[in-house]
Amino acid sequence: MTATTGTQAQGRTTTGAPPPGRRRSNPSVGHFVGTVLKAVLCAVMLGFFALPLLWLATAPFDAAPSLSVSWPQWTLANFRTMVENPYALGSLVNSVLLSLGVVVLVLTLGSIASYALSRVVIPGRDALLYALLLLSSIVTGTAAMVPTFQLMNQLRLIDSQVGVILVMAAGVMPTVIFILKDFMDTVPKSYEESARLAGAGPLRILWDVVVPIARPGLATIAVWSVVQVWGNFLVPYILLRSPDKQPAAVVMYTFYTEGGQPNLALISTFSLLFSVPVVAMYFFVNRKFGFRFHGGIKS
Question: What residue stretches are annotated with the ABC transmembrane type-1 domain (predicted)?
Answer without folding.
Answer: 92-285
